Automatic annotation (TrEMBL):
Residues 21-244 form the AB hydrolase-1 domain. The keyword Magnesium does not apply. It comes from Pseudomonas taeanensis MS-3. InterPro entries: AB_hydrolase_1 (IPR000073), AB_hydrolase_fold (IPR029058), AB_hydrolase_sf (IPR050266). This is 3-oxoadipate enol-lactonase. Pfam families: Abhydrolase_1. The keyword Hydrolase applies. The lineage of its organism: Bacteria, Pseudomonadati, Pseudomonadota, Gammaproteobacteria, Pseudomonadales. GO terms for cellular component: membrane. Keywords: Hydrolase. One of its GO terms (molecular function) is hydrolase activity. It comes from the Bacteria.
């Protein structure tokens, strides 16, 4: 279990396979464990590096204010620690936000970017937005992590056959440090880099579940603002697409990475093939 120190924090990461580097960045309240269905598939072709973001998993959880910019600096430090030139970065939810932040601040570190169920800003633009953000902020403080885990499990994996996935969420979520979890949530609210998306010129694949928290149309809107991006929709999926549709997700991700590596653009499968 390798670790490295950066900015007074010991950060945990894992490495698998050989080849061009693929860096996996998890979401809020998650860890390297939530890439369990991607790591074997990717490691057969690439050098896979999965990071526990500051405040998560086996990384330190310093008592300080967190920020998406700070998380992105941690990722940049890992890339430099591993002596990599540029990486294929795959980020889900908060991990996608970190990918956007790194893309606008350090575009030279990205060979490609895959954004999963995420966006380049979390800013209220309507009374409904303000209400939803305030509701999430308040409930996260009032409810225990165990209660949040049960609600989240039912929301992400509502099907009877997804019982095992629900159990994983219910077991893993309460292992979070509540203070670090709330500090990470605070880092998300109000964050945004949408006005600087033109700086991200690397090939970018935006993957959206058809039943994600935010509508597909919102992703389609910001994809148009990226210089070299496309949108892919995975059906019958919710926010945790790599877990609820791993085979479909992996096949599209591998196709995208191969395309970038070969530097010979070819169309992906039909966006709603799965």
């Amino acid at each position: 279990m390798p670790y490295f120190d950066y900015d007074g924090c010991q950060l945990h990461y894992e490495e698998y396979g050989h080849g061009a580097p693929v860096l996996l960045v998890h979401g809020l309240g998650s860890s390297t464990r939530d890439w369990e269905y991607q790591i074997p598939a990717l490691a057969a072709h690439y050098r896979v590096i999965a990071l526990d973001i500051r405040g998560h998993g086996r990384s330190d959880k310093p008592s300080e204010r967190y920020s998406i910019a700070g998380f992105a600096e941690d990722v940049a430090a890992l890339i430099e620690h591993c002596q990599l030139d540029a990486v294929h970065l795959v980020g889900i939810s908060m991990g996608g936000m970190i990918g956007f932040q790194l893309g606008v601040e350090r575009p030279e570190l990205l060979k490609s970017l895959c954004i999963v169920n995420s966006g380049p800003e979390v800013k209220a633009k309507s009374p409904r937005d303000y209400l939803e953000i305030a509701k999430r902020w308040s409930l996260s403080r009032l409810l225990s992590l165990e209660t949040i885990a049960k609600a989240l499990g039912k929301m992400l994996f509502p099907k009877p056959e997804q019982a095992e996935l629900r159990q994983k969420i219910e077991a893993r979520w309460p292992q979070n440090d509540k203070r670090a979890y709330l500090a990470s949530l605070d880092a998300i609210i109000g964050w945004g880099v949408r006005e600087r998306l033109a700086r991200i010129t690397c090939p970018t694949l935006v993957i959206s579940a058809d039943r994600d928290y935010t509508p597909v149309a919102q992703k389609a809107a910001y994809v148009k603002e990226l210089p070299n991006a496309r949108l892919l929709v995975i059906e019958d999926s919710r926010h945790a697409t790599p877990l609820d549709q791993p085979q479909c997700f992996n096949s599209h991700l591998l196709a995208f990475l191969a395309e970038v590596e070969q530097a010979a653009p070819t169309p992906l499968k039909d966006p709603k093939a799965c």
